[in-house]
Amino acid sequence: MTCLHYIGVPRIGPARELKWAIERYWQQSSTLDDLLETARILRQIQWQRQLDSGAAFLSVGDFAWYDHVLEQSVLFNVIPERFRAASLTSYQQTVFAIARGVTDPTGGDLSASPMRKWFDTNYHYLVPEWDANTRPALNPEPLLEQVQEARAIHSEVKVQLAGPATYLSLSDLKGIDKDTALDRLIPVYQELLEVLAKAGVAWVQLDEPVLCTDIDSSWRSLIERAYSSLAASPVKLLVATYFGGLEDNLSLAAHLPVAGLHVDLVSAPDQLPALLDRLGPNKVLSAGIINGRNIWRANLDAIYQFLQPVRDTLGDRLWISSSCSLLHVPYNTTNDTTPNPAISLALAFMAEKQDELQALSSRLNSQPETRWQTVFDHSRVARETLSGFRKNAAVGSRVANIQPQHRERTSAVAIRKKHQQATLELPLLPTTTIGSFPQTAPIREARKALKQGLISQDAYNVTMEVAIADAIERQEKLGLDVLVHGEPERNDMVEYFGDSLAGFTTSRNGWVQSYGTRCVKPPIIYGDVYRERPLTLAWAKYAQSLTQRPVKGMLTGPTTMVAWAFVREDLPTPAIADQIALALRDEINDLEAAGIRIIQVDEPALREKLPLRKQYQRTWLDHATAAFRLATGGAATGTQIHTHMCYSQFKDILYGIKALDADVITIEAARSEMELVADLVSANYEGDIGPGVYDIHSPLVPQPTELVRRLEKALETLPAWQLWVNPDCGLKTRQWPEVEGALAAMVEAARIVRANVEASARKLTEADEVTSY
Fold it and tell me: What tens digit of pLDDT does each residue of 72-86 get?
């Protein structure tokens, strides 16, 4: 029989119960026992759902308090050096300390580990940090507790871990090479497999999405060596690949000495024939045939036709699952609606995807139609309904008439800088923030009341204006040079625009984990996108009316809006990005007309959505940067265009960053200790750079001395006239006391470094005058 199993499932809870429980624990309004009980209940619910859907195995190991990669680092004792002697008394305390930073009574402030995007998704993982003294060792108790919990429900359990190659590829290896790290790591994997076998575990899933990326011969050798060492495992191993096709790694993956191989047949269905040829006579093939990254009903008839011959060939060796973990989609559509019932009918969140897998499994196993027909019928109706939501003639005509000059500023960045500085009169090392300020209880309550119809739009607007005025006043008191309105009206930097643009819609409860307790509700793109009315104009005008200092207009870029939305799978994403860019272009024109002289267009997804294979990256970057330039190309020479990016490995997209042709880029650099500044300088980036000088995701309030050190480090490679001073990301998730303390330290650090730079410049001038005389 065809076996149904799960590559991974969400962990936050259908109503974000884990988020709220963790945050209560952080705030010390609940105990560790309360937190543990919430997590136990959520796991029980999830396992029961898997069992009810016909899963052969319950998945263990995909639950995490903050991030599954971080959990594995703690499981393997790959602890950053600065935390090894810290006073951390529990497993959870260790996880949260590494994720968020901590003040240790014996050692001062310990900074959080770097955070990066999980391959080409909007999920963030905590980077494993290695050094020459890192000695992995097994700490299996928390995982074994979950195994015992699961086996109390169902005896067959499959444990999920990151495979050794992927885990090392995600790691920051300092003072140790990857082969030495593997030599230290493999015995821990071997020990864990022995422990799990004794605990009654049947299968262990080793996730190796690195096999869907470009790897060189040294990595191929490492993978072969790793799995040769694991070949004698006492439990069966399933290597899981996803986020793309295996391509040139197909033979390597197919011949690994493991019991099964999972492949992503949503991203790369064409790899199936070659896989069947190379799989071998005894190995399981797990077919990822339901999209784990999007929320549309699948074409079940087509999938069934695709899988029928595979079932006939493999028999019981065919397993089916989602293409990747369902971590990337919301929980279920029960009690969840969009403004358009026809769109709601076409949605499939985690629970509906589980229903789809169960229906496919039932039909492949020749079970009665009553077991699968209803779900298949729903699939057909959804596709027919969606066919009516597609075209807008006016939008199509406007896109068709885009000319090359529409994607270019009228002058070069150096010329623009002179005009902008003459108008803005900013000091050396100008200070600013990224855009958002704390979403206080009154702000959230007003938004909720408006949605529920309990207050009028006018009453809501008054609350927002009060919040904006408060934010402007605080910024002026702090001494910031370029202000923001604080975005109180925005629930999310993409969802807000999704609520405002035609062609978008939003769900009520479609929450997805982005990192830790941070959840987002991606909007849904179902048709051509256009602007029916101004998006941000009124708030920006109001904020600017309150101050003589420049206030930034705040927009989210076209690539990020597409990347962080659930887009209909038959819509061409480059065309959708251009449609969004045209809407933003109109918004920028309106902001300029209202006197807004600085406009920030955020593109944090520029690196995130970079294809995993180099051969596709240049084409994708060309499309993405062209959309950004279409949005900003109509801006006047004197209008300063900023962009912002965060939590990515930017070395891969330096070409793309330059191609954006922005005047200022603000970037995450605190956790990476200003490394990107040198990369941008070496790439001859001509715009100004604002490296984030402190980590906003940590509750630690930085000291001016630490920020001075970081700014001085940036100045080792960057001229002072090119340097801005800012946090590394928006401040929405922080509290005002933390924000004001950190920003006060940042402004003070900028003042100190500015004075030092100006003093050094005066000395050089005086020396030149003496020499000339």
Answer: 999 999 999 999 888
Quick one: pLDDT at residue 768? 60
Taking the C-alpha atoms of residue 131 and residue 46, their distance in angstroms, rounded to an integer, is 37
Measured distance CA(612)–CA(245) in Å, rounded: 10
Calpha distance 540→730 (Å, rounded): 17
Tokens at 558, concatenated: 């076209």
Quote the distance between the C-alpha of residue 748 and its chain's center.
Answer: 32
Query: Backbone phi, then psi, for 269, in 5-degree steps?
Result: -65, -25
Three-class DSSP category at 462: helix
End-to-end CA distance of the chain: 94
Helix (H) / strand (E) containing 286: strand 284-290
The DSSP code sequence of 533-567 is: S-SSHHHHHHHHHT-SS-BEEEEE-HHHHHHTSEE
| Cα–Cα distance measured from residue 460 to residue 468, given in angstroms and rounded to the nearest whole number | 12
Bridge partners, residue 689, by sequence: 665, 723
Active site residue 697: yes
pLDDT band at 773 (very low <50, low <70, confident <90, very high): very low
CA 688 to chain centre: 25
Distance CA 122, CA 293 (A): 10
Phi, psi of 266 (to 5 degrees): -85, -50
Q: Retrieve residue 740's tokens.
A: 């004001």
CA–CA gap between residue 325 and residue 118 (Å, rounded)? 12
Six-digit token string for 147? 């195994």
Q: Which entry of 124, 485, 642, 697 is annotated as an active-site residue?
A: 697
Q: Measure the CA–CA gap between 566 and 523, rounded to whole angstroms.
A: 6
